[in-house]
Design a protein that fits this description.
By secondary structure, the protein is an alpha/beta fold. Helices cover 42% and strands 11% of the residues. It has a seven-stranded mixed sheet, with helices on both faces. It has a two-stranded parallel sheet with strand order 3-9. It has a two-stranded antiparallel ribbon with strand order 10-11. Strand 10 (456-457) and strand 11 (462-463) form a beta hairpin. Helix 1 packs antiparallel against helix 4 (58-79) and helix 2 (34-42) packs across helix 6 (113-132). The structure holds zinc ion. The site of zinc ion has 5 residues, from loops.
């Protein structure tokens, strides 16, 4: 009995990794990569369940089941290999399985399990390092902050959207009327809709790690030394606020949590902690927090929406079922329609704040909705990078920074990846950090390097394909 158990354990240890890799391949049509493993580690269980219910079809589940049975059968054969009454077809099957695994090893020769594990470790260590070097970064900042010559005050608002594809927004030409508010405000003289913005990765944590720090795909900075937007803002005298509908804690503290935790005032609307979590509030709830902010006249207020993340039907109340079909596309478009309503409310509210100067909106990455691929990096298609970005400035801002405002308008069509948001926002707020500011990465600078061929995504792995190139 005992030796049978040991043999089965051995079989599981030998076959499970292969089963996982083949299972992933069968269900997703892509090979496991570091990005997949990191996304799984940073995702909580309910998100994974939503993912599986959204993207796994019945045939995927059947494929997985067949594979499981096959592997159990292989296990049985290998355990009974020495017995005389071994089935001939059984051994043929075993040989086939070994060949399959051989092919797998060949296919993964540059990216086998060990490699994946090692690279994943490198990522987590980098993230840990980012957290540990927090104090050192702040010290360095104290010494390097250029005197902010403005006695300029102002309330600035940054809104981070989630999984939003601009190709599904009518303000960007989509035939369905998904963004009536954005369409109406688009022609306002104080408003700028950016037409050529791409995400620097397809997963939330890698995108925001770069978007909200001095690190980007085009510089050689070490992440741990890269100061964050909130660190700079505070050093420059801004009161910082973080209002989020995303879960604060996932598998471990990601750089986003570290950055957000820096905020002087924090409002976390997704109260779920740890691994067992479900989304509970719609994004409109975040607007209510504005009442609770202790206001001052120099502020950076960041909103982190749940936006258009799958499952799409979980992102909007029934009243927003504009498209009644049950297709993924209908649900996604409804979530875009609701996001437009949230942004209208948020905008009206912050615009009325005393000393409001500007609002910047961008999405972390898009979803490839038409292909039903979500935003999984291992199944990368360029549509996953098609994010929206827009800005609004008050009359007071425009008269104070008239030259800068002209350059902001001129950048409307410039190609940019959202890891350069850090420079963009600091430029909007007129904050410059000595030794950190990169004028060739600031879309509002005349030194901005707009060479289309230089832009990349997936942390440099893929070239950006712009419709305008
Ligand atoms: Zn995301």
């Amino acid at each position: 009995m005992f030796s049978k158990l040991t043999k089965w354990l051995l079989v599981i240890v030998i076959f499970l990794p292969v089963m996982f890799l083949w299972g992933y391949y069968l269900s997703s049509g892509a090979w496991v990569s570091v990005d997949t493993v990191m996304a799984v580690l940073q995702t909580n269980i309910s998100e994974s369940q939503e993912y599986m219910s959204d993207f796994m079809t019945i045939s995927d589940w059947m494929g997985m089941s067949v594979l499981l049975v096959a592997i159990l059968f292989c296990g049985y054969i290998s355990i009974n290999l020495r017995q005389k009454n071994i089935l001939r077809c059984g051994s043929i099957f075993l040989v086939m399985f070994i060949m399959m695994s051989g092919y797998f090893a060949y296919r993964h020769r540059h990216n086998i399990m060990v490699d994946i594990a090692l690279q994943t470790k490198v990522y987590t260590e980098k993230y840990k390092d980012f957290e540990n070097k927090k104090v050192a970064r702040k010290e360095a900042l104290k010494n390097s902050l250029l005197s902010i010559e403005n006695d300029s005050t102002g309330v600035y608002v940054l809104v981070i959207g989630e999984s939003q594809n601009r190709d599904n927004m009518s303000a960007y030409g989509y035939q369905r009327k998904t963004t009536p508010w954005l369409e109406s405000i688009k022609s306002d003289n104080n408003f700028i809709l950016f037409e050529n913005v791409y995400s620097c990765h397809t997963h939330t944590v890698p995108v925001l790690t770069y978007a909200l720090t001095a690190k980007n795909q085009y510089n050689n900075l070490d992440l741990a030394q890269s100061i964050s937007l909130l660190e700079v803002a505070e050093a420059a005298g801004f009161e910082t606020v973080w209002i989020s509908n995303q879960v604060k804690y996932s598998a471990w503290d990601t750089p986003i949590t570290v950055i957000a935790d820096e905020a002087n005032q924090q409002f976390w609307h997704n109260k779920n902690v740890g691994e067992k979590t479900a989304t509970n509030h719609y994004d409109l709830k975040l607007v209510e927090s504005i009442e609770k902010i202790k206001m001052s006249d120099k502020m950076l207020i960041v909103f982190h929406l749940m936006g258009n993340h799958g499952s799409y039907r979980e992102r909007y109340p029934n009243d927003f079922r504009l498209f009644k079909g049950s297709k993924t596309l209908d649900e996604y478009d409804n979530s875009i329609f609701y996001n437009d309503f949230v942004m209208k409310n948020l905008f009206d509210r912050v615009k009325a704040l005393p000393n409001f100067k500007g609002l910047v909106y961008f999405a972390d990455h898009a979803d490839a909705v038409k292909q039903n691929l979500g935003h999984d990096a291992s199944k990368y298609v360029p549509e996953m990078t098609h994010v929206p970005m827009y800005m609004y400035f008050s009359d007071a801002y425009i008269s104070e920074f008239d030259k800068k405002f002209d350059s902001i308008i001129n950048a409307k069509e410039s190609i940019v990846t959202n890891d350069l948001i850090f420079n963009t926002i600091l430029s909007v707020m007129d904050v410059r950090v000595d030794g950190v500011y990169e004028e060739y990465n600031d879309i509002f600078s005349d030194k901005y390097d707009a060479t289309a061929q230089r832009f990349r995504t997936l942390y440099g792995k893929k070239k950006i394909v712009s419709e305008r190139m």
